[in-house]
Amino acid sequence: MQTHLGEGNATNRPPLFNGTHYRYWKIRMQVFLESQSLDVWNIVEEGYVLPTTLEKDSEGIVTSIKFKPKSAWTQGEKDKANLNAKAKNSLYCALSQEEFNRVVNCNSAKEVWETLETTHEGTDQVKIAKIQMLTSKFEDIKMLEEETFDEFYTKIMEIVNSLVGLGEKMNESKTVRKILRSLPKRFKPKIVAITESKNVDNIKIEELRGNLLTYELDFEVPSKKKGVALSSQHKENDNESESDEDTVLLTKKVKNFFKNRKNFKISDESRSEKFQRNSRRSFIKKDVQCYNCK
After folding, report:
1. CB atoms within 10 A of CB 187
2. If DSSP codes are grouped into helix, strand and coil, which group holds residue 292?
């Protein structure tokens, strides 16, 4: 079993759905069905019921409803049956074995489509809860200082596409205004230029993206790595400071050593001079002694 949407490059083959990325597959599958013909997609939306015939009694009162035999079908009924079969075949070809087992007993393409919706999107109550959660996320999201605009754009468009996949209408102007409100201070000059020169409601999302990407190229984006580098630099500075303190302390000790050594030398020299003076005095006294009386 394939574990990714690997059938997306062929225009004549439906995108494979294996149970993951349902919203992405749902949009692509709808477009694929519409590309076959709008009538094929309409039969998925409106549904299909086998032709029936009414049996009446002698008084014209309906007594029972029975399925029409195919031999009695009108051309219009045959055309609708063909559309339903074509839509069902496309859906079945797009499903992995596990997903196929969920819908194998469905009688119409509409039933197949709705079974997949309920399985992967939940009931109406679940959809409403998801829409509320995503709407809150859309309102709260802000571009971080260390983010690039493209990273922020990817995040906000994932939310928008999820809302659209759940059936929520998202005006392009609403998304454009949200993006402009959510940018950090470094984009302020560009925001002012855009709002003053253009009507924001007429700006296309891709046009806005291109303008902001171009503007961002002139600025260095703060990054988490840079913060880590700064932190590392602070640590190095701290280590350098500690090293400097050790060096100063060692220098003082060396100076004190040489100072003490100098003082010791001076002290030694002083004692030597004193000894020499005493010796000299002693010698002088000896020279003046009398040889007779001593």
Report:
1. 19
2. coil
What range does the domain containing 101 cover? 22-120
Indicate if the pLDDT at residue 227 is higher than 60: no
Give the DSSP letter string of 141-187. ----TTS-HHHHHHHHHHHHHHHHHTT----HHHHHHHHHHT--GGG
Instruction: Please enumerate in sequence order all residues whose Cβ is within 8 A of that of 86, keeping only pairs 6 or more positions apart, or say none.
Output: 36, 40
Q: How many domains does the chain have?
A: 3
> Is pLDDT above 70 for 14?
yes
| The two three-digit tokens of residue 24, written as one number | 């992405």
Distance CA 256, CA 240 (A): 24
34 domain-assigned: yes
Residue 272 to residues 6, 42, 188, 260, Cα–Cα distance (Å): 102, 121, 84, 18
Q: Is residue 82, in this structure, part of any structural domain at all?
A: yes
pTM tops 0.70: no
**Pick from 140, 157, 152, 208: nearest CA to 183:** 152
Q: Are 116 and 190 within one domain? A: no
